[in-house]
Amino acid sequence: MKSSFQVGDLGRYADGPWEFPSFESIELRSKGSKICICVFVLNEVGRLARQLEKMRTVAERVDVLVIDGGSTDGTVDLEEFAAAGVRAVLVKKGEGKLGAQMRMAFAFALSQGYEGVVTVDGNDKDDVVSGLPRFLAALDAGYDHVQGSRYLAEGQHENTPLLRHLGVKWIHAPLVSLASGFRYTDTTNGFRAYSRRFLEDDALRAMRADFSGYELHYVLAIEAVQRGFRVLEVPVVRRYPASGKIPTKIVGLRGNLRLLWSLVATCGRVSRRLQRAALVVSLVAAFLVLTAAFRANFWGTVNEVWFQRHQRDSESLVIGRFNAIRDKGLLSSGNFLTRSTHEHVTEYRNWLGGLTQEHFHPYHSQLGLQGTLAGAAFQAMRLSAKETLSVAWLLNSMLLSGLLVAFLEWTRRRYGATPALLTFLVLLNTPWLLVFGRNLYWATWAWFLPFVAFLWFSRRLMFCGVERFWDVLFLSAFFIALKSTTGYEYLSTITVAAMVPFLLEGMSNPLPALGRTLRSLLAVGAGAVLGCVSVLFIHFFIFSQVFPSGREAFFEFSKIFAKRTSGSPDHVGQEFAESLSSDFTSVFNGYLNNQVVVFEWTAKQIIYGTLLAAALGALLLNRFGAPTLWKSARDESDALRLRALTTAFIFALFAPFSWHVLALPHSFVHFHMNYVLWSLPVTLLAPVLVGFVAERLWPLLVPRGVGLLLLMALAVAGVSVYVTNQEAAFRKFAFSCLGKAATLHALADAGAQVSIVPASNRVCLKSEPFDAYSVRPFEITSMSAQGEPGEMRVLSQTEGSFTLPFWRGRGVVVWTTLPLQGLKNIQLLLREHDGRVRQTWEIPVH
What is the 3 state secondary structure string of 614-636? Predict the structure, then answer.
């Protein structure tokens, strides 16, 4: 009997989510078994005939289907197939390779009512007669995915090419095993079996045109395990010819590399195990990289001296508290932070040198909880002074890094990997956040806590169950109170940032949510006021214990805040008088023209500025047609998400400016620090917005090949600029030293100690023992070197010279000192990584 089979006869497989190529089907005989074996062929003339001849006894037990991929060498011979007992022939006419053949074979087999499908290659390598009974027994026993393996105890493999053998044993099988969670030993073998219930699983979603090549083999092997189906390996025999051409479609280096890429890409795309592992590794790596940046400027993002010196006067208050706890006890000085009556460097010297802080006074302007808790904790841990400071910096950096990594993961979940990666790169190149990150006084992590926490929980707080106005209010109060205990600076910026998640969530919801959004914003604002006022009451109570009368305490307490907000200029010093008389224009001009900013227009700053410009461009795209453009190529929800994100971004712009309005005098006094306000939340949302837009418009505007070339060119250009900058920086450093030889000579005659610190860009002068924490450098010259300094050592006292090996690269600053008295010259060497001296400079001291 010979009849044609129509695609419409596939029934629900033709109308459902299955995707398969067009094909011609010819039935040579009627169905005779509940199991079929599908033989996949493509230009296998001769080899297929030999295999079908061996399979004559098999055709008596199961139905044999030949699945041809569009052979052009005469492989398809219906008379020969009929004589060999073949039940049906399917010839692919549409696009696709092995995966397409498999999909059309499965659809045909299931539409014909087969309970199990065995697959095998038609190139006469597999011993089907000896192997088939094991597959049939496994299907009868209830297994759903049965993999044939030549590497099991009873399996055999003959003449397997060495490259194929090594690839299967050490790459292919281990990777699929890792991806699935089942230990496979042979994952390239096409001799397999599948149950009907596995192939029909609605959640499988493997029968798609995406899997057109070998990918479907890997997908089914992984998904069977992930979805809880029963999986088994059975031994089989596979023989390659002893001589002649190897029967395979994977030819040459290019073919093997394609196969490897297909394997890796598919495993990463399908395997939830690998995805979770990759996510965990990525988040941990991001956490470590950010921690290293905040703790030690490890990546050299900012000027090292700026990093080491910025806000040390503020941090010295916390170190002073450490001193007070050690010398006077935990509850001394009303638990306030303390400042020495001498220069602020004394706090560091006293703490690190174990000296008693005899003369100090409390800093009454804030509660200083960070100093009390940290000092008590480290006192209980019995760490040394230096270890205390180092661990405190590390913990502060880790807290900030943890919150920022939580933001990155939220970004990945909501907007994709590209915006998350772009945000991560921006965070590494945000100078002001880096110089504040580890600072013990500022406790920068407390700025981001409410913003990040509400990002993660705003949906639950707004749309799950009853409206949780009071939950939002009390959470906001808690977060702002926590921040207020470490200082009242930037509270309005932090509060506006905490509102952004609720605005974003409300705008992202397709249902009307204006009322809930406004109530949530109100709850955040009310909570912020409650939290701040609560801390003020506690602050005043503790403050009043220091003064003999409540009236005097209230007067002094009021004066502290009046000089920073709206007090009279007649009752304060000149600096505060000028700030109280200022207006927003003067603050903003100082903000723009401040010369304290250590910005060098390197590639990093250019990229950062370009990013902000691109954010404004994204706003224009949102307004003028991007959603309309996307509707034809992307999910329509993209337009809604973009509109929500751009609205939140515009709203976030009010966060940094709010502080200039609410605390104008304080903003005037500290305008040299106001740049850090842009880190919350504008710096975080800008790259998310840009990445979200770019990821969707890039494929529409730039052809795939051109886009890849552009990305490669940008990467090469970035590395080149970086290397060039490093070399130019060293030359600038060296020639600056050459120009200062006379100054060094004068210092040497004075018997001073001079430390040349290339990674910190400074030559530092001290007339007493020097350490990294207590010194306020006397600037001899400004240099722009960035790199890892080597040790300074005296090579020969008789010749009076020393060598400074300067290795290009990045690293932690090593501070060293060297007496220059009696030295005749300074020799600077620029070495390659292999130790060869590339360039030498001599600096005469005489």
Answer: HHHHHHHHHHCCHHHHHCCCCCC
